[in-house]
């Protein structure tokens, strides 16, 4: 299946146009032009008509400006240009764009032959099935969606239909609301972005701060880009890390730092924390770098909150390093993640903006820059091999294990790395119930870890390999061998949640 | 036999609109078909807004999808 669908292209075209107009200082006058350049009269058509398409587009533009949908476009633009980000969730549904996918879970298809056996009728525990017009019929008022009928039909005539957004959400946070439109229950949602990737109509998106960021750059502020370790290979397998760094500077960033340095700090702190607290103060400890995972524990397993490491995430750690050195810096996290947008807001004054790799690439194109044409240079990572491998599932676990081996050999550490919120949840429940004797859990919301995040541009198999090769180029192997990280840890900054 | 020369643009604008999918599609073709293709990357084919762009035997084609490219390949390779 192609990764870049028409829906994805549409989103990227809108972000690119917004960035271009913001860089050219034309957003205020020309924002409406996006409605005509992205959706032309000739098509291609994604919706019934050009009017509906433009209505959807207006919602998309407001979300891309981080403004609520009840504002007029012009007001939304002015707010964004003034640097305002509305107080709203990261992941939002655009009701006009939602296709109200069917909610009848089990559907009898034409393949039903009204056979004599009537396995479906016999297997239904609720007597919800009868024969109507020579075909099985499911009475929706009685159906409890147990799926027995589907299992029993020898012709496979009963199929299960799931709304893509609902199947994608491991936490049951998204459901059909009024008018059958999808609705998110924010008490359950952790902003992981899985539903955004899953919706085939592009009805779900994350709010974006690219305009606010462009304004900060244009105002001449000292804007730092902190690059998540998954950045390797995101802009094409041939685009080298040094070209990305150069391109950022050309776009107006003041300096660039690596989040993997923050990852080394996290490894050192988490290792100390583990050896000091497990098993005396707690039965097990989990990592804390994936914000969707941490939020899942808070919202769905609140009794387990004490098991989450108090160490801040690599993003916050590197943010603290930069702000310590340069208090008036504006720090921008560039990564694969939507949940980081929510995490940043919990730590005011450390991370000022969060953008995804996709948003960064749109900004580059909007600024007229082509990373493939930037001169290559040598780029040496400031982090260890282990710090760089935080980008892949299992990386954090390995880093901490390597450190435990160095500082406290013989420690009883029984680790497990989990990908996907459902798997993380199951692993923790098994510890609670005593079915598993694991005492250290790495939890990652996305399959594959950060390289599989909702804001990436490249297939995670490709980037996973490139990240691995790049991390091997690091001089230091473990976090303990990284002198920069060691010096930072000694500097007296507080690396734990308050 | 002449090779089918395919130049896929991997510049930022085209990459964003899916040029990687085109490369993956070509790389996934059966070996005997690939043997007739000379695949190259280009850093910009100078039609950025209309990407992903591809040059086939020197001719520029814009807004290419994997399906469209597949058709072009089939057409060209069968004709030889
Ligand atoms: S997948 Fe969900 S959000 Fe997307 S169109 Fe269907 S119901 Fe609406
Ligand atoms: S938890 Fe993730 S998949 Fe579920 S609604 Fe929230 S962002 Fe979407
Ligand atoms: S980047 Fe592809 S044509 Fe310019």
Throw out a few tags for this protein.
A: about 500 residues, alpha/beta, 15 strands, globular, B: 4 helices, binds iron/sulfur cluster, binds FE2/S2 (inorganic) cluster
Report on the structure:
The complex is a heterodimer of chains A (498) and B (80). Chain A is built from 21 helices and 15 strands. In chain A, the strands form six sheets. A four-stranded parallel sheet of chain A has the order 10-9-12-13, with helices on both faces. Chain A has a three-stranded parallel sheet with strand order 11-15-14, with helices on both faces. By secondary structure, chain A is α/β, with parallel strands linked by helices. Chain A has helices at 6-23, 27-30, 33-37, 50-64, 73-81, 119-123, 148-152, 164-168, 194-198, 210-218, 241-251, 259-277, 291-300, 314-325, 339-346, 357-366, 385-388, 395-407, 421-432, 460-472, 483-490, and strands at 91-93, 106-108, 129-132, 135-138, 158-160, 174-176, 182-184, 204-206, 223-227, 255-258, 285-286, 330-335, 353-356, 415-419, 440-444. Chain B is built from four helices and four strands, in the order βαααβββα. Chain B has helices spanning 12-16, 19-27, 31-34, 66-79, and strands at residues 4-9, 37-42, 54-56, 59-61. Chain B has a four-stranded mixed sheet, with helices on one face. The chains are: A alpha/beta (498), B alpha+beta (80). The structure holds iron/sulfur cluster (2 copies) and FE2/S2 (inorganic) cluster. One iron/sulfur cluster binds at residues 93, 98-101, 163-165, 182, 199, 201, 203-204 of chain A.
What strand line-up does the widest sheet of chain B have?
2-1-3-4
Instruction: Return the structural class of chain A.
Output: alpha/beta
Indicate the proportion of strand residues of chain A.
5-15%
Secondary-structure-derived class of chain B: alpha+beta
The end-to-end distance of chain B, rounded to whole angstroms, is 8 Å
Number of helices of chain A: 21
According to DSSP, the number of beta strands of chain B is 4
Oligomer type: heterodimer
**How do the strands line up in the largest sheet of chain A?**
10-9-12-13
The rough form of chain A would be described as: globular
Report the C-alpha radius of gyration of chain A, rounded: 25 Å
Low-confidence blocks of residues of chain A: none
Rg of chain B, alpha carbons: 12 Å
The residue ranges of chain B in which pLDDT falls below 50 over 5 or more consecutive positions are: none
Mean pLDDT of chain A: 94
- Biggest interface pair, counts: A-B, 26 and 19 residues
The percentage helix of chain A is 40-55%
Small-molecule binders: iron/sulfur cluster, FE2/S2 (inorganic) cluster
**Largest sheet of chain B, if any?**
4 strands, mixed
Q: How many strands, which pairing sense, and closed or not: the largest β-sheet of chain A? A: 4 strands, parallel
Mean pLDDT of chain B: 92
